């Protein structure tokens, strides 16, 4: 595997061999023309005595000696590298795999993924095997569960969706598992995840998540980067068709069977974005919205003014990953076109592509979700403009109505490759 293209080893081995040969020629010139001429003569005569011209040409002995010398030199390099790797705690057998992976992934597409919840973390877990140039911009407006309790206690942004994304992009399987561990007992600990408590600790110790970002990425060995949409605590507010107003993301599920959401906004509205987020959007080759809950995962990120402005100004194509099903309460009865119009209404830019699942959902799965008030999103009634933007791919995780991380990432990378 050391000889695989792009790993950056063959060029140095070639240079080493060339320099060794040139050095040998220089040494031969020195000994033959200098004060060690008698040594060179005796050495040549000694080698000639090892065989006869009938068995092997005299120059063949020299070729054999050179081959042995090069083999010895390469062996020395290999053993030196093994010693150095073992001294740093890296298994020599895995070093080549890590080197190849990082070299290859560092040339991957620059993707900015926007959203939150399990949808975004699933996408990230699939994308990280294709590229290291991933930036996740995550909603932090959650006010329920562990995130809500930490927000209220520490006046910080909601860490829950950030934790899921850090776990998805972590290079350490052990850390990823620990981040998602939820305490089932213990006064004050029950219901919290270890990842949420870790982010709360770093935020408290560094005076806010904004200044703790580099520490978080280093500690968690994140492949790419994960940033909150804003580091200022904010509340999601929904305006309904019947004129009512609902405050708090956790209250949106209570809309089942009542009025639809007309628009959402943040309170306070003009929250700032991190400079790293804006820079990533400017450098992006593809901006992915979702998958995830429309009004509670994707749109809250777009409500940060600097983020939405940067996406509108970006030359990169915008891809909206359509949900597989509607969500009871939040998007009940909303068509695919309604989802896209909601994105456009809050972002101010039409997605260049809309990625939809092309696999049929099993009837028993449809019935199970229908019993909970969810329906499959289809192109029924969609306009010609929307249909022209739709791209289909097999995205379904078998036996569920969820996106398969590997299939979703492959579809996204495929679109990016064609764009590049």
Automatic annotation (TrEMBL):
The chain crosses the membrane at residues 12-32, 58-80. It comes from the Bacteria. It is found in: Cytoplasm. Pfam families: CofD. Belongs to the gluconeogenesis factor family. HAMAP family: Gluconeogen_factor. This is Putative gluconeogenesis factor. It comes from Deinococcus petrolearius.
């Amino acid at each position: 595997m050391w000889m695989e293209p792009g790993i950056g080893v063959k060029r140095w081995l070639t240079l080493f061999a060339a320099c060794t040969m040139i050095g040998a020629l220089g040494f031969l010139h020195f000994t033959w023309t200098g004060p060690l001429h008698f040594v060179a003569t005796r050495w040549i005569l000694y080698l000639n005595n090892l065989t006869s011209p009938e068995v092997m040409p005299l120059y063949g002995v020299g070729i054999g000696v050179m081959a042995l010398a090069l083999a010895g030199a390469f062996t020395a390099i290999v053993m030196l590298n093994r010693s150095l790797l073992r001294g740093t705690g890296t298994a020599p057998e895995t070093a080549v795999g890590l080197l190849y992976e990082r070299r290859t992934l560092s040339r991957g597409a620059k993707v900015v993924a926007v959203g939150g919840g399990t949808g975004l973390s699933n996408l990230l877990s699939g994308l990280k095997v294709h590229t290291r140039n991933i930036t996740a911009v995550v909603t932090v407006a959650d006010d329920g569960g562990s995130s809500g309790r930490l927000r209220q206690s520490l006046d910080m942004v909601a860490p829950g969706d950030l934790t899921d994304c850090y776990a998805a992009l972590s290079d350490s399987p052990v850390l990823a598992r620990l981040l998602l561990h939820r305490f089932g007992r213990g006064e004050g600990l029950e219901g919290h995840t270890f990842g949420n408590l870790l982010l709360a600790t770093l935020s408290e110790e560094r005076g806010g998540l904004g200044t703790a970002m580099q520490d978080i990425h280093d500690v968690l060995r994140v492949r790419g980067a994960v940033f909150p949409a804003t580091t200022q605590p904010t509340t999601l507010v929904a305006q309904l068709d019947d004129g009512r107003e609902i405050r708090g993301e956790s209250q949106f599920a209570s809309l089942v069977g009542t009025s639809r959401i007309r628009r959402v906004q943040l309170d306070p509205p003009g929250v700032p974005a991190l400079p790293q987020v804006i820079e990533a959007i400017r450098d992006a080759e593809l901006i992915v919205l979702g998958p995830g809950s429309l009004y509670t995962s994707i749109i809250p990120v777009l409500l940060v003014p600097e983020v939405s402005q940067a996406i509108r100004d970006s030359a990169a194509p915008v891809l909206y990953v359509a949900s597989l099903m509607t969500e009871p309460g939040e998007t009940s009865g909303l068509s695919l076109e309604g989802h896209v119009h909601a994105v456009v209404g809050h972002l101010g830019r039409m997605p260049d592509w809309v990625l939809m699942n092309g696999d049929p959902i099993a009837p028993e799965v449809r019935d199970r979700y229908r019993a909970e008030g969810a329906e499959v999103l289809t192109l029924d009634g969609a306009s010609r403009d929307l249909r022209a933007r739709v791209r289909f791919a097999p995205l379904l995780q078998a036996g569920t109505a969820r996106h398969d991380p590997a299939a979703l990432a492959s579809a996204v990378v495929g679109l990016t490759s064609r764009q590049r």
